[in-house]
Specification:
Elements lengths: L4 E6 L18 H20 L5 E8 L17 E6 L5 H13 L3 E5 L3 E2 L3 H11 L5 E6 L5 E6 L6 H6 L5 H9 L4 E6 L2 E2 L3 H11 L10 H13 L5
Length: about 230
């Protein structure tokens, strides 16, 4: 019988708060927020539509409390939204880890800035992680960041891996190397961090490959940005 899955979106920076978000290169703050919150919402759509026994948790930065656009999260009725204080996320991550251990859940941590993961990718992540040996399964993005990290066990050191999900590949890999588990690596997804990644996002969403990774509604939202910032393409 397949193990239940806990899917965690740890968002290491404000995305809904248009005043506190860090500007994406060439964007103003409101459009930066629009880009990053729609990357998060798109991935939530993919996970929400995946037919499997799952629990979804979204950890948002404290500066996103009461921000415009949060109401969109209400359409994901199976997702729990938690706000954390920057630098003090440890107790929440520890509590979530203990719950996963008690429920014998596989844990999948998703980079909120990723595009391109599909339902099939999540099924592969779960199948690879569901084994007797203790493993950490790292998904490297096509542009050299981390798309997701999966665990089939629990230890305290996982907190540093989760909280660094938006950091460089080398930083995350160093944290993974400190764990008492066998690391496995695969490649999927695109993490949007730079102007070059914005062009890659345009190329991806212009291809048929993007159909299972992005709904038509979300595609229209990104197209709005492509039209507005066509000089970056």
């Amino acid at each position: 019988m397949p193990r239940p899955v806990s899917i965690l979106f740890f968002v290491p920076y404000p995305v809904f708060n248009q005043f506190e978000v860090d500007e994406f290169a060439g964007f103003d703050k409101p459009r930066t927020s629009f880009l990053y919150r729609n990357l998060l919402l798109n991935q939530l759509e993919v996970v929400h539509g995946w037919e499997g026994k799952k629990k979804i948790t979204v950890m948002l930065h404290q500066f996103d409390v009461g921000a415009e656009g949060l109401e969109e999260l209400q359409r994901f009725e199976d997702a729990e939204v938690i706000f954390y204080e920057a630098g003090n996320e440890g107790p929440i991550l520890d509590e979530l880890g203990e719950e996963s251990l008690q429920n014998q859940e596989l844990v999948v941590v998703v980079n909120p800035a990723v595009m391109g993961l599909t339902k099939a990718d999540y099924l592969d992540l779960v199948n690879f992680a569901d084994q007797e040996d203790e493993i950490v399964f790292v998904t490297r993005s096509s542009n050299g960041w981390v798309s997701s990290v999966s665990f089939n066990y629990h230890e305290a050191g996982q907190q540093s891996v989760i909280s660094s999900i938006g950091d460089s590949w080398n930083k995350v890999l160093r944290d993974v190397a400190q764990l008492e588990a066998r690391p496995l690596i695969t490649t999927s997804g695109l993490v949007v961090k730079s102007r070059k990644d914005f062009r890659s996002l345009y190329d991806f969403l212009s291809s048929k490959e993007s159909i299972p990774a992005c709904s038509f509604e979300m595609h229209d939202r990104f197209t709005e940005l492509f039209v507005e910032y066509k000089e970056l393409l």
